[in-house]
Structures are given as structure tokens and as C-alpha cells.
Amino acid sequence: MAGREPKTPREDVVPGALDPGASVLVHDAGDDTPSGLCGDLAASADPTGDVLVVEFSPDPADCLDKLANHPSTGRKRLLAVGDHGDVRSSRGDVDVVSIDDPADLSSLGIEISGFLSDGGETILCFHSLTDLLDHSDLERAFRFLHVLAGRVRAADAVAHFHIDPTAHEPRDLNTLAALFDGVVERFDGEWIVRTTE
User: Region (Disordered): which ranges (predicted)?
Assistant: First the structure.
């Protein structure tokens, strides 16, 4: 993508770059993504805000550690999706909820919606849509994400959804991007937010 002008307005990713109610799709190819990007997207003006991380990783321990160290003093919850056995936090400030079946979008939606509706400024990190699409077809995932983006807006939360762009057809990426307020991607060596309107 380097060397081409983006087709839509863009801005650099800086802490607190997302407005309340915004959801963005993060083109995350793994090793290329700096560890601070997620933190910048999740930066909150309210240090008492809540943080919810949805994690499909086979071993969510690393995510659990990062969540425990997040500067927010509000509620912190790891929603571990998949068969992880008994996932527990050694720190009392992180609540862990498990959903064993990654294809159970109904239970996933109920857990996320319940957290969002409990009030307070909320940050949602969803890692990742690539994993979600391993267990659900595009049409079903699209409907799920459409409803979820609406709930993020209604709650004035801030959400970012990771996806590996190398694992999907461009047509499918464009279909998903239409659900979000912007796409976070690399441009000339920098991470930028490209609006999708």
C-alpha cells in the first residue's frame, strides 16, 4: 500500500484518536503490528473507564497480563473464546468469562452487550475477526457485527476489531469494512485511520 494515496480521508493513530461510539477495523498481520497500537486505540480520556477484551487465542495468558496492566481503574474483563480449559486471572482486578464454542455468536453477543450496557466509558478490543470467521461464515458474521457495532454506538463505547488482511479476499475485507467507521492500516510506514464513509 506504500506509495499510493488513500482514497478517503485519514489521520495518524494517536492515543484517544477514536470518538465515543466509534468502531474501527484494524488490519493486523501479526508481527507487523506494534504492541503500542492497541493501547493507542484503547486510550481513554476517562481513567475510570471499563475495558473488555474478546480473545480467540488458544492461550489467552499474554492477553490476560496486558489487560491486568491496562491503566484503567474501571472494570476489566477478558472474554476467552474457545476451549481453553479453566482460564483464571491471578489478579483480582480482571474478571474472566469463557465461551467454549467459538461458533456460539449468540452467547458471545449476550456477554459483550451485557458488559456494554452496564454503563461507564467502555473500550472493546476484539481479537480477532479472522478467528471468528474460522468458525462462522461471512454472512452470519456480518449480521453479528452489524448488531454489535450498533450496540457500541448506543453505549458511546470505543471498539476496535483486529483482522489479518492476508487471510481474506479483498472483496470480503471491503464487505466487513462497510460496517465500521474506519479502517486502521499501514501507510508509508505509519499507522493511520482511514474513514470508510
Answer: 1-30
- Whole-model pTM: value is 0.88
Helices 105-117 and 138-154, packing angle to 10 deg: 10
CATH number of 62's domain:
3.40.50.300
Domain annotation covers residue 165: yes
Query: Could you tell me if residue 5 is inside a domain?
Result: no
Taking the C-alpha atoms of residue 168 and residue 86, their distance in angstroms, rounded to an integer, is 31
Q: What is the domain count for the chain?
A: 1
For residue 14, the model assigns a pLDDT of 61
Q: Tell me the pLDDT tens digit for each residue of 147-174.
A: 999 999 999 999 999 999 999 999 999 9
List residues bridging with 119 in a β-sheet.
none
Helix, strand, coil distribution of the chain in percent, nearest 5: 30, 25, 45
What is the Cα–Cα distance from 128 to 183, expressed in whole angstroms?
A: 14
One-letter amino acid for residue 12 of the chain: D
Q: Residue 47: phi, psi to the nearest 5?
A: -65, -10
In a domain, 181, yes or no: yes
What is the CB neighbour count within 10 angstroms for residue 102? 16
pLDDT digits (tens, 9 = 90+) for 110-131: 999 999 998 778 999 999 999 9
Query: How wide is the angle at C-alpha 101 spanned by C-alphas 95 and 107, nearest 5°?
Result: 60
Burial of 62 (0-12, 13-18, 19+ CB in 10 A): exposed
